[in-house]
Fold these 4 entries.
Entry 1:
Amino acid sequence: MGLERAVNIADLRRIAARRLPRPVFDYLDGGADDEKALQRSIAAFADYEILPRALVDISTRSFGTTLFGCPVAWPILLAPTGLTRLFHSDAESAVARAAARHGVGYCLSTLGTTTIEDFGRSAPAPRLFQVYIFKDRGLTAEMVARARAAGYDGLVLTVDTVTGGNRERDVRNGFALPPRLTLRSALDYAMHPFWSIPALSRERFDFVNVSHQAGARIPPGTSLIRYVAEQFDPGLT
């Protein structure tokens, strides 16, 4: 199935499962421990109902609104997602182009793989930057200043990640940054050449907005759990 034939999110998930190596898909699709919170989040969305009202004039309708003072075509914001280069060779810039086509805003993750400045030039308004509070407060302040200088419209402060979740799928797959090969994962990568061959020719995987600080770089083979534990400030109040 190609993207043009996808009619819902479940179709997109099936396409991703076929196209991505298992360790990469599991990182995208999985949650922590027994994934109870993930299951409850899905169930919570299923509880929402659309209540129709009859005999209401809908001959003229608009879904547009404003977010952070910027007009958008839909009351939707594409949330920050780390490690985006794992899923598309153009990383966050590809998502920004899709957001622009549909008139919605997009938020760059602190752990994004596109620089604050490059994203600011490619993303539609509202341009937002997600802020994690690092133990190195100077690094955090520097990123906020860079977002301001690049013309961002707002900040999204994330406070619910005081420690990394124990993502059991990632542990079983040996998933690390950059991805570490095991016999099982090597075979899986070999079976997904449309992902693996471009990945080999890409620039080195990195969290480009923090890697200029020696203390915030990703040591080879580091798990995301370990990185979060070492870098994010658990004393935030």
Entry 2:
Amino acid sequence: MVKRHWRAVVTTLVLLMALGTLAVAIQTDVGAHARDRQEHTDLSAARRTLAASRLTLEKTTYVKALATNHRNDLQASVTATLGQLATTENTLSTTDAFAFLQGVSINTLQTCLGGIRASYQQIGVHNNAQAASDISSVSSACLTLAGSTSTGLVYPFDFPDPDVLRVGGTYFAYATNSVGGNIQIIQSGDLTHWSAVGNALPTLPSWAAPNGTWSPAVVQLGGTFLLYYAAIEPSFEGNYECISVATATRPQGPFIDSSTAPMECQPALDGSIDPSPLVDSGGGLFLEWKSNGGAGPTTIWSEQLAASGLTMAPNTTPVQLLAPDEGWQGGMIEAPDLVETGGRYLLFYSGNYWGSSNYGEGFATCAGPLGPCTDASAQPILSSGTGVSGPGGASIFTDSSGSTRIAFAAWTPGQVGYPHSREFYLRRLNLSGGSPVVGSAG
């Protein structure tokens, strides 16, 4: 009995020692895990801080680059105008100068040169806004001296990706960011004389990187004007372009975008750009745009919008309308503009690289705003020619007389690609036949 009791005591002591050892081990393991979790938390925090620092650096570097580009764009606009004047001067030296000057007053010459001189002075003090205003205010005078109206040139300054909206008897044109601000806007009462209005979108939403806005398009819904545009969302790896929308009660703005995120982005396809709205004959509202491609080609998409135009319609997904399939496109299509005319839908688009003389305008036929669409341009309907190089980024609209017009941007031959300017052109467009025909200026 004593021996059995002693064995029980020994067994108990052994168990207690084992439990003590296990407790120490557990405590040690728990402490190790706690330290590991803390170290992991600290490491994650350090990584987040590092990522934020890198993002801040990337934003700063990007904004600095864009600011430089703005200044370079303005310089290029002024330089291009001086080049046009030099061409005119050569013309005067080899032809009948008196005959030319009969139609041009000395005041016209002084006005153009005065605006250029003032613009140069503002560039020198880094006042881009005033420099843009100075040179834009003399556009008509400089255009007269340039003698280029036969090509359809109506605004001899940088005005890429134009979109034209007629409101009553006034025309408003919007363009990609340049010296005129986030979204440039000019206006005209006769489609010939255009003057700068200012910056249609003075403030960007908090998610968008500054100074990087593209390809605006405006539609009127009742008393509201909606401006669709592309901007950079820097939180995406690669700084993808994304689409957003701003609203205003007047066509000249200011447009306000209070969004907290883009309405369309497609990061898996390297971003979305070139938005273009359509209100069809049934009152439906649709948005077309281009994806940058990702692992595949650039592609044009469409999706129905909600009645407000501020979001996509519920329970809808993007539908592919068109991908590049012709040799002249160089594997790239963009800048869609879907038009409903005579009971059919025509999808206008640009093909090839925008910074080259190979850029041009094509079209496809579509069964409806959501397709399907069939490419109908074995060759572009608008391409480089006399006085223009690399035309594209077209906007189709109807003037006050009921005639159809095509607005586009193009380089000056011999001055193709950055840092030269893509200037603003207007021509007539005939849609009565099987294929659209780009006509003359005027």
Entry 3:
Amino acid sequence: MTQKQKDAFSKACHRLRMIKHAEEITHNVSKTCRYYGLSRNKFYKWKQRYNQDGIKGLIDLSRAPKHLPHATKQEIVDQILYLRKNYYFGPFKMQMYLRRYHGVEITKATIYRILRKHKLNKLPSHQKGIRKEKRFLRYEKPIPGYQLQIDVKFLGKIKLTQEAREKKYYQYTAIDDCSRIRILKIYDSLNQKTSIQFTDYVLANMPFKINCIQTDNGSEFAQQYHWHLHDLNIQHIYIRPRTPRLNGKVERSHRIDGEEFYQLMKGKIIDSLENFNFKVKEWQDYYNFERPHGSLDGQTPFEKLQSKLNIPSPISLTPNVATPYSLLTFG
């Protein structure tokens, strides 16, 4: 029994004592009402309900209105719960998605009330954010291409086919510090050679000139890689050791990959590295062209790029396939 039910039962017992007091002790309704500080109308109301329904009649009825013309539609509630359970989105990000993909205008406070009603207002422990006093200030370079952040996400050992052996796979990620445009590619090796190959792939696909690339101090970004960038007339910056927050945008994007892409890939059959990269390219196009970002006030990275460069259409980032990750349908 919940505390609310206990309180309701306690009130019902109190009202029953008043009725029994009048019947067995005072034999006078007026004296009983004066003793308990109760009006005669109230006493007769509870006595009538007790005679009709017994002890259940002494429990308070719900005061909720029977009709709520302005209540949130059930299909919108279902969408909110789906985004929370599958993507751990907060009220602000849900508000962006519902506005962009469904034309639904809803306040963050309403979304939070719906989550609280369904006991989903608290995230699982592994999805909780860090405390405010430990957060770092957000920064942003003023021009697209002024600086890229490049990092590697280890995907673990994956067995692509029944006959193949398990191999380690790595996701290389480059993100523009200004627009958040990203380029992704999967490799089955991690060394300076693959880092150089990926960087050349990024330079060929980014629609703007790259002035600087920032990486961590991993061996895959060592001297050979450094001088390759120098030969391309691109500045190479290493972040301070043991400070991944200085590459915060690419690190945060890797967390998004895990939450919104790789968890949906569980159970999917990927029979080759080419097919793996095809799926990653779909996700990359969705991220760049369709996914609204909280740090960009609900814009997509391409919309941010358009506002900075004043271009009408993408140059070399045009998606080649219809992405299945647009969340236009739920469930």
Entry 4:
Amino acid sequence: MTPMQRFGGFFVMGVDTTVGWPSKERVVEFGGQQITLRPESDEHAPTLVVRLGATLDELAARKLLQEFMSALAWIRGGRLVETFSVPITGCPIFIGKGRGRMIDDSPIEHLPSPSDPNARLALALYREASAVNVIPYQFLGYYKIINILCDSGSAQKAWIATAIAQIGDADAIRRRDQIAQAHGDVAEYLYTSGRCAVAHAFQQPVVNPDDPEDVRRLGADLPLIKVLAKYALEHEFGVKSFRTILREHLF
């Protein structure tokens, strides 16, 4: 046990986010701990604070807050990334701010906390993909969620071919149909011209980050691969979206 665990301390994490953030301090129960969301001010960034103790050291605190951010990014939608974090004795410090953001004082609820490690990994990858500001790696980030389910290219393409017939998002359907018209096999296109073209550079096709046409094409593919990632999270890993929760509870 560290001195900070024994005598008391906090783990403080500043965040950069497009997710709505409360305008007043709010305490949320997550993972058996109380996490405080502190509001943004003119000088200070939105911040997460958790108390260190006998069952929560610095490493566990960081993991807890990262998993909380993944759950919140999934249920609220948007980008949510750590900017700076520090363990501290005494009172939790404030962390300098970045850009401004939307205020959201609605209840923070329905946060998923799956016991399945693969489901937690999928949530983490979804948040990471949402936070990336480089389109090719954003595409690859969403695709990696499918990779959790299927280790081979043939299995990934088979899963995509089945799932792609089930999606209902208008933008994703529009892009699916455009790809089918131009390339025929949508699953093969997403695997070869998307996943492999971003991840590898030793074979064709390859995505050149200096080629605006490559970036434009993958940008057009993003709504489709993102919807497929969300479909995998809901239907393969059992992590319900906020839209599904609202529909099932008739809110």
